[in-house]
Amino acid sequence: MLTFISQYLLFCYVFLGAFTAEKDLTTVKNSRHPLHLSSTEINYNANGKTMEISCRIFTDDFEDILSKKYKVKSDLSSAVKHKAMDELVRKYMAEHLQVAVNGKQLGLSYIGFENDKEAVIVYIESEKVMNPEKMETTCTVLYDLFDDQINIFHITYHGSRKSAKLNYPDKVLSSILK
Asked: Is the distance from CB of 65 to CB of 144 less than 8 angstroms?
């Protein structure tokens, strides 16, 4: 009885697989991973009075959106193209990530990016901010690529860490820091 069931399951797997293999390969090619997310750390540096921001984004997704938006072949792991890619990453992040503290939009300075295996980490620092009590983060990273994008935030203020997320199409995250 067990061999009959095993043979039946094998037959179904092979038979059905023959008809879905092409579709599955297309799906894998178009969606290299099933989860579309970024993770952003925002840490208040009490000594420098700045917000230090690092944003981790899947490399393949980030390359796809940079290529689509700026009509170039992007390669974030190429040392030769790093300077050109640096400018595109800076422009993209300036358009898709803003931070306001106590109702005032903060000036953000792009520091740079690095490739960390499957992800790119983008580093940004805010202008000086005194006595932050409420922070509003506007983020649309990869919203122009995926309609199921999730952007996760970890905010650390004086050792207290809070986490939250934005699901597409939500753009604004409000946080009470104190």
From this structure: yes
Whether residue 149 contacts residue 169, with contact meaning beta carbons closer than 8 Å, is answered with: no
Q: Is 160 left (phi over 0), alpha (psi -120 to 50) or beta?
A: beta
Distance, in Å, from the CA atom of 166 to the CA atom of 28, rounded to the nearest integer, reads: 25
Note whether 82 and 60 are within 8 A (CB): no
Cα 136 to Cα 166: distance, rounded to the nearest angstrom: 12
Closest CA to 31 of 147, 169, 120, 167: 147
Please write down the HEC assignment for all residues of 29-78.
HHCCCCCCEEEEEEEEECCCCEEEEEEEEEHHHHHHHHHHHHCCCCCCCC
Q: What span, in angstroms and rounded, lies between the C-alpha atoms of 129 and 102?
A: 9
Residue with tokens 């750390």: 41
Enumerate residue ranges in the chain where pLDDT < 50: 1-29
Structure confidence by residue, pLDDT tens digits, 92-108 = 999 999 999 999 999 99
